Amino acid sequence: MQQQMDDLRAKALASLDAASTPAALEEWRVAYLGRKGPMSQALRGLSALAPEERRAAGAQANELKTLLEERFAAKSASLQDAVAATIAQREAIDVTLPGWRPLAGHLHPTTRVIREITRAFADMGFQTVEGPEVEWDYYNFEALNIPPGHPARDMWDTLWLEGQRPMLLRTHTSPMQIRHMETHKPPVRVIVPGKVYRHEATDATHEWHFHQVEGLAIDEGISFADLKGTLYEFARRIFGVERKVRFRCDYFPFVEPGAEMAIDCFVCEGKGCRVCGHSGWIEIMGAGMVHPDVLRRVNVDPARYTGYAFGMGVERIAMLKYGIDDIRLFYANDLRFLRQF
Ligand code: DAH
Partner of 34 for a Cys bridge, out of 2, 30, 88, 293, CB 3.0 to 4.6 A? Predict the structure, then answer.
């Protein structure tokens, strides 16, 4: 019996040593500790022994069984550790490597510039309002002193919509001057950003759709000096505190007097360069004192109230600010362009 136990122990331990995978280990457990294994058989065989032999043999068999169980548990734990270590190594994360930056979108340069412009005017007390892009002839032209057949209509090549009454895609944001004054009594101070459309061939400086920002201020005692002061402050905010401004006469049917505003070139500081067309000055918007006829049309008494209006092209401002030389880039959806902002 003793010999049998010693042999079994040697065999079992040797094959336990050899088991190097969880599957092999499980096979070993079934073979040596399972119900049909030699351990169970030995224990069952005890009943055939004489009582005096049985005690010693039983103790031996139990001792061996406990030993095998302990060794099995130890081996199983160390195999599990090894498996875990292999997985840990295979799937190791080097936390010191730089991470992947998630691709977040950002604002379009046009949107950014619109926000900068409206912010500058908001700080001077202007409220932002918006109007429709599909517009009546009345608001886009007639109410702005441009009746049918007026030669000034040629200033805006218009995209007309078919219908009984003449509708169009607004050619400028100025119609919102009328719409706003129809529903708001002075004092009025508003900024109108929005999309406008022109029936034009495109080139580096022309698009058939682009954005404008309109401004309107109506109150008692507003003079051209207020217009100049406000736009001067705006130019400094957008193009730098050293800016000089220049106003020259210009014609727009809805203002009198009308003006064109320019700033001294912020690239060459007035010396003359490619950006300013070697003139030293860059025109940035149209402006003027609101025409009395326009005020009368919305039931505002021009003897009591005066005001100014102005309008600028957003993409043009953005092109100047960022040195962009082709307006078509704004809506070409080229990510190489857009990612720069
Ligand atoms: N609406 C004009 C345009 O699109 C720009 C403009 C000029 C707006 C003078 C004004 C203004 O409000 O006073 O060409």
Answer: 30
Tell me which of 35-44, 237-246, 318-327 is least confident: 35-44
How would you classify the pairing of strands 245-250 and 255-264?
antiparallel
- Segment 94-108 mean pLDDT: 89
Q: Are 244 and 202 in contact (CB under 8 A)?
A: no
Query: Smallest Cα–Cα separation from 112: which of 305, 270, 322?
Result: 322
Q: Which of 291, 250, 106, 126 is nearest to 193 (CA)?
A: 126
Q: Which atom of ligand 1 is nearest to the CA of 155?
A: 14
* Assessment of whether the complete model's pTM goes beyond 0.90: no
- In this structure, which residue's CA is closest to atom 5 in ligand 1? 311
Structure tokens at 99: 């991470």
Residues designated as active site: 156, 172, 198, 212, 255, 309
Half-sphere exposure of 170 (CA within 13 A, CB side): 26
- Mean pLDDT along residues 301-324: 95
- Domain borders along the chain are 2-90, 110-338
Q: Mean pLDDT throughout 1-25? A: 84
The ligand 1 atom at the shortest distance from the C-alpha of residue 172 is 4
Do 260 and 248 touch, CB atoms closer than 8 A?
yes
- Residue 237: the pLDDT is 95
In the CATH scheme, what architecture does the domain 110-338 have? 2-Layer Sandwich (3.30)
pLDDT of residue 33: 85
Cβ–Cβ contacts within 10 Å for residue 107, how many?
A: 12
